Each structure stands twice: as C-alpha cells, then as structure tokens.
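STRUCTURE:
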C-alpha cells in the first residue's frame, strides 16, 4: 500500500515537473516592480565587462563532439604588457555561467567598496584577478546561455541535450584548456572552479593525468564530487532521476514544481528567494545576500543545463559514489562494457597543486562529503581552507557580500 502511495506521489510530482504552464511568467520581477530595473539586468556578460571599464573578448571553442562554447576573456586596458600575464580559467557551477564571476556587486574593486568592508579586495572575482595582473578567462559549459551552438544540432533537437558533466569532463574542459594555452603561449594555467566546476576538474585529473602538469593550481571552491550527505532539496531529484533520464531535453522545472519545493523547504518570509531554483537547491544566508540585487542574480541565474545532468547528480546522491552516468543495466553494458557505470578514481590523481576551500553551512558541498573527498585524494593538499564564517553557504562564494573578505584574498594568496 505504502509503495502505491509513493508511486502516486511520484507520478504527481513528475506531472507537475513536466507541465509548465507559465514558463514565461517571470517570478523574478513580480516583487521588484517598485524597484527600478538595475542596468545589470539588461546586460549580458560582454556588456557587464565593458560597463566596468574593461574590454571583453568572446572566443568560440569547438569541442570534439561539435558543441560550440562561447567563452569570455577580460582584457584590462591598463595593462600594457600582456604577453606574460598568467592565464586563469574560472569555471562556474551547475546552472551557472560566466556572469557568476562578475555580477556580485556593482563596485569595481575594494577602493569603491570600502564603505562596506575595508578589508575586502573587491567582490567580483573576475575583475579582482584582472586588476591583479591575471589574464582572466570565463568558461561556459555546454547547454548554458552562452553555449547553445552546435556544428550540426539545434537546441530543439533532443539529442543536443543528451549530455551530463561526463561530457564536460571528456570534451568541454580539455578543449577550453587547450584553446587558452594555444592562445596565450603558456604551458599551464590556474583553474578556479565552483561546485560542479570542481567536480569536472576532479574528473579530468582522474581520467587524464597529463592535465596535472597543466593545471597549476586547481582552486576548488565548495568542492563537489561525493554528494551523499547533501542537505539540499536536490535530494528530491535523486528520486526523480529515472524520470529525468526518461524525459531528457533541457532542464526546465516548472514554476509550480519549484514553488512546491520552496514551500517544503523555506519558511514563508524567504519563499521569494527560494522561488529561484539555484537558491532553492543551494541555500542562502540572508546576511550575505544583497537583497536589492536579487533582480540581477535572478536574470542571470539559472543558466541552462540538461535534464540528464541534474539526473546524474541525483544518481550520485543515491549511489554514494563519484562515477559516470547510469544509463541502466543494458545500455551501460553497451556503453561501458559493464553493468554499473565506472567510477572516477580520485585516488589516482597525482596533482600536488590542489587547494580546497569549503565551509560549514553548505547544503551541496557538505563537510562530510568534503571529508570523503579528502580521504579519496592520496596527494597532499596545497591548501586546505575552511571559510572562517560558520554561516557561509554554497552561493556565497559568488554572491556573498563578504566574498571579497573571506575568500578572494585567500585565492590571491594561493596564486602568488
Ligand atoms: C584604468 O586606470 C584609470 C586611471 O587610473 C582608471 O580610472 C580606470 O578605472 C582603470 N580601469 C580599470 C579597469 O581598472
Ligand atoms: C581599484 O580601482 C582603481 C581605479 O578604479 C585603481 O586605481 C586601484 O588601484 C584599484 N585598487 C585595487 C586594490 O585593485
Ligand atoms: C570586515 O570583515 C572582517 C572579517 O570578518 C572583520 O573582521 C571586520 O571587522 C570587518 N570590517 C568592517 C568595517 O565591517
Ligand atoms: C552562435 O554562433 C554565432 C556565430 O557563429 C554567434 O553569433 C552567436 O552568438 C552564438 N550563440 C551562442 C549562444 O553561442
Ligand atoms: C607564441 O610563440 C610563438 C613561438 O615562440 C611565436 O611565434 C608567437 O608569436 C607567440 N604568440 C603569442 C601570442 O605570443
Ligand atoms: C602524474 O602522472 C602523469 C601521467 O602519468 C605524469 O606525466 C606526471 O609526471 C605525474 N606527476 C607527478 C607530480 O607525479
Ligand atoms: C546591492 O545592490 C544594489 C543594486 O544593485 C547596489 O546599488 C548596492 O550598491 C549593492 N550593495 C553592495 C554592498 O554591493
Ligand atoms: C512570489 C512572492 O513572494 N510574491 C509576493 C510579492 O509581494 C506580495 C505583497 O507585497 C505578496 O503577497 C506575494 O506573495
């Protein structure tokens, strides 16, 4: 009997998930109408970079399987000697994009920001690094706003969306890295990943050891690989993962579904913030969030991904492993030559340039999972840094008011 009830509830949830009556209803503006539109809400990544006095370049990187990734470069006009600036690649997380690194605050750097906290180096990591003489590249993974082109497929083809972060590991990351090295004549680059951006680098280092020489250092913000302890409602997607795998296509949860989850997980006061799938999945800390800037965050996030990608994380929650996508026994047999998907063997990573930065109030990169990750890694860590703020959450690395106080100075330290 209980089984049948579960089944019916699951069916309902799936129906609500699929039936999207109001895709165009923009919840983000519902309660911002009194506030005038922030100019950053109407700007894309390039326009934001230009508006802060930098020059922006877009580069198109074509992967071996035909995806055309739009990646952005921040060019600092005050820097005349360009040749030897060290390249640093910033890689966003699940549902993120290149704008993650440049929209946190409207202030360019610490000197403008001192009203808030004089110890801050500035709150937009992309600009902080550019002003500190780095050659800053911002990637965009397949399927997000800036990476929806393909040499043969259109986004309306279901096949376009048949990917998970496995393909970001196998194709996107190596293509982007090789492209940047070629463009800059460097033999190595610094890599800073957030969340899924760390998962894919662990995956790359585990499957292609030659990259351990190239990635120097790898700074992992809110490191994710093992996710069995996560507190986030993404747990719900664990149960939905078979359904999501079956549905396929772009990940477009209906507003109703998101509201349903928000009601389950957020107290009344905070439901508006929770109405954004990113905040709903990763949690937030009111003290770290600039409420008057939510409109900007909401227009740039969530950026797209595939249903399969979300299903993949759901599978990892259930299996307590870090392994490839589970297609089901029969297909696994054909694709992997075995019934279960192969693991990413993190114990085989031999890079000695890994820095972990994590916190205690992170729903997605839970401290217990970070500890499992540390046990798996057999190499000594270059840095092991617990953010000294007990309330620091998963999104605070990119949208936290004090990101320029607690995290970015540490990043500069590590890079120097
Ligand atoms: C470049 O330098 C000028 C003059 O000091 C300054 O006004 C401007 O903000 C700087 N631009 C950037 C992007 O740092
Ligand atoms: C902040 O930007 C100003 C120009 O806008 C520049 O003169 C100053 O050096 C920058 N400060 C830092 C810490 O980068
Ligand atoms: C800035 O943040 C640091 C780190 O928490 C804190 O010690 C300091 O008091 C803050 N300063 C101001 C002016 O808020
Ligand atoms: C797709 O490619 C064209 C040029 O090939 C470019 O103008 C457009 O911005 C690209 N779109 C995306 C989302 O990358
Ligand atoms: C890269 O190096 C090659 C050979 O050393 C040189 O010909 C080329 O101009 C360099 N390119 C850049 C962008 O520095
Ligand atoms: C890691 O492994 C790769 C491939 O086997 C090798 O080229 C590299 O030298 C190793 N690096 C270290 C630090 O042992
Ligand atoms: C918060 O966001 C608003 C709107 O973008 C902006 O005017 C304000 O300066 C921001 N405050 C901080 C501390 O970044
Ligand atoms: C989605 C949301 O939070 N909507 C709220 C907007 O503000 C009005 C009153 O100011 C509330 O009634 C809505 O619930």
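SEQUENCE:
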């Amino acid at each position: 009997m209980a089984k049948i009830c579960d089944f019916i509830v699951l069916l309902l949830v799936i129906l609500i998930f699929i039936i999207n009556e109001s895709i165009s209803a923009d919840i983000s503006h519902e309660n911002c109408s009194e506030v005038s539109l922030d100019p950053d809400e109407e700007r894309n990544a390039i326009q934001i970079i230009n508006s802060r006095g930098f020059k922006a370049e877009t580069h198109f990187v074509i992967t071996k399987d035909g995806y055309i990734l739009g990646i952005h470069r921040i060019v600092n006009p005050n820097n005349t000697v360009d040749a030897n600036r060290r390249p640093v690649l910033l890689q966003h997380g699940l549902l993120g994009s290149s704008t993650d690194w440049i929209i946190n605050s409207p202030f360019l750097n610490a000197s403008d920001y001192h009203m808030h906290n004089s110890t801050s180096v500035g709150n937009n990591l992309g600009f902080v690094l550019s002003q500190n003489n780095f050659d800053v590249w911002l990637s965009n993974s397949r399927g997000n706003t800036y990476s929806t082109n393909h040499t043969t497929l259109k986004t309306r083809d279901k096949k376009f969306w048949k990917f998970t972060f496995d393909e970001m590991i196998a194709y996107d990351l190596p293509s982007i890295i090789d492209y940047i090295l070629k463009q800059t004549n460097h033999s190595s680059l610094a890599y800073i990943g957030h969340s899924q951006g760390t998962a894919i680098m662990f995956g790359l280092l585990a499957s292609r050891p030659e990259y351990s020489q190239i990635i120097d250092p790898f700074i992992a913000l809110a490191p994710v690989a093992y996710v069995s302890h996560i507190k986030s409602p993404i747990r719900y997607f664990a149960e939905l993962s078979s359904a999501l795998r079956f549905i396929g296509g772009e990940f477009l949860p209906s507003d109703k579904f998101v509201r349903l989850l928000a009601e389950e997980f957020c107290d009344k006061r905070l439901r508006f913030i929770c109405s954004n799938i990113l905040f709903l999945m990763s949690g937030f800390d009111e003290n770290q969030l600039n409420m008057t800037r939510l409109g900007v965050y909401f227009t740039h996030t969530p950026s797209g991904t595939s249903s399969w990608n979300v299903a993949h994380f759901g599978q990892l929650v259930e299996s307590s492993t870090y392994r490839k996508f589970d297609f089901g026994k029969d297909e696994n047999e054909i694709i992997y030559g075995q019934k279960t998907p192969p693991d990413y063997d993190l114990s085989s990573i031999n890079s000695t340039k890994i820095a972990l930065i994590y916190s205690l109030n992170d729903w997605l990169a839970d401290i217990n999972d970070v500890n499992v990750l540390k046990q798996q890694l057999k190499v000594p860590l270059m840095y092991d840094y617990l953010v000294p703020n007990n309330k620091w959450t998963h999104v605070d690395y990119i949208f936290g008011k004090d990101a320029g106080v607690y995290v970015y100075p540490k990043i500069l330290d590590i890079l120097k």
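REMARK: Confidence is low (pLDDT under 50) at residues 20-29.
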